[in-house]
């Protein structure tokens, strides 16, 4: 209840205290009073108005096959060798363990698997339409989650063989140039999936407990993308250059 009142005080009334929003903003550290109790993941934007928040791509593609083997203007892969990298459309279908369960049913994601690391191995999400200017924006936000086992929702995927997964993100310009890559570990610890004590889809398992993708927010300051020409950004590239598999 305290967090609810904090949100109201930070945004509503004649004299809102905007500093209170820092409690919800992943740009700032979690208060120690909360951090000592439990792990906390946050996702917060001040406004969804297009003047302040711009959606990079709605991922409105319909292909069900590996996107790294299909020509698409939405997703670009470094290579079409499925023994090295795969990218699939993922939707909210609670009974399908490979999809992102228990989130907004309209949510569409890309399920990526890589089988060896390389600075040249990436999946790139392209801007919807022509290149755009990011000069007035403060950060690039995206949501990520590690996946559970493809067929057993009680086990972590064997591709997540380490406690933390790390990869890098960079901006791509319309002329093909790229910014300096930024490791996501600088701003977030990609762990999980996390456990749950309930088991709503299989009543035959009485005490359940299943793993749940949490879709944590990674917020990277635009100023971190050294070398970017922010007047002509056309894509965001996720580079799988750290963990052996993922």
Can you describe this structure?
There is one protein chain. With 246 residues, this protein is mainly beta. It has a 5-stranded antiparallel β-sheet, with no helix packed on it. The chain has 2 domains: 44 residues, no CATH class; 202 residues, Sandwich (Jelly Rolls). About 3% of the residues have low confidence. It is globular, with a radius of gyration of 19 Å. A hairpin with an 8-residue loop joins strand 6 and strand 7. The longest helix has 10 residues. Helices cover 6% and strands 22% of the residues. It has 2 helices and 11 strands; from the N terminus they run ααβββββββββββ.
Blueprint (SSEs and pairs):
Layout: H1 2-11, H2 32-35, E1 75-77, E2 85-90, E3 109-114, E4 122-126, E5 139-144, E6 168-173, E7 182-183, E8 194-196, E9 210-212, E10 216-221, E11 233-239
Antiparallel strand pairs: 1-4, 2-3, 4-11, 5-10, 6-7, 6-11, 8-9
Q: Strand-and-helix sequence, N→C?
A: HHEEEEEEEEEEE
What profile does the largest beta sheet have? 5 strands, antiparallel
Assigned CATH architecture of the largest domain: Sandwich
Which structural category fits the helices and strands? mainly beta
Low-pLDDT windows of residues: 92-98
Separate helix tally: 2
Task: Average the pLDDT over all residues and give the rounded result.
Answer: 75
Portion in helices: under 10%
Q: Please state the CA-atom Rg, rounded to the nearest Å.
A: 19 Å
Number of domains: 2
Beta strand count = 11
What is the CATH C level class of the largest domain, in words? Mainly Beta
The shape, in one word, is: globular
């Amino acid at each position: 209840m305290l967090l609810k009142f904090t949100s109201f005080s930070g945004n509503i009334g004649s004299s809102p205290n905007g500093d209170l929003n820092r409690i919800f903003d992943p740009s700032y550290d979690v208060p120690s009073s909360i951090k000592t109790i439990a792990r906390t993941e946050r996702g917060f934007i001040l406004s969804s108005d297009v003047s302040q928040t711009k959606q990079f791509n709605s991922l409105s593609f319909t292909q069900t096959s590996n996107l790294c083997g299909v020509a698409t203007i939405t997703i670009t892969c470094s290579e079409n060798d499925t023994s090295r990298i795969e990218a699939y459309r993922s939707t909210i279908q609670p009974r399908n363990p490979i999809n992102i369960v228990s989130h907004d049913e309209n949510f569409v994601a890309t399920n990526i698997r890589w089988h060896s690391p390389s600075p040249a191995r990436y999946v790139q999400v392209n801007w919807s339409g022509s290149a755009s200017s990011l000069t007035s924006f403060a950060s690039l936000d995206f949501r990520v989650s590690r996946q559970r086992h493809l067929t057993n929702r009680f086990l972590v995927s064997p591709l997540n063989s380490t406690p933390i997964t790390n990869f890098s993100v960079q901006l791509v310009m319309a002329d093909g140039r790229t910014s300096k890559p930024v490791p996501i570990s600088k701003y977030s610890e990609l762990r999980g999936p996390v456990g749950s004590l309930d088991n709503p889809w299989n009543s035959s398992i009485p005490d359940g407990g299943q793993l749940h993708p949490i879709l944590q927010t990674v917020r990277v300051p635009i100023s971190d993308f050294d070398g970017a020409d922010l007047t002509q950004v056309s894509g965001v590239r996720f580079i799988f250059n750290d963990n052996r598999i993922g």
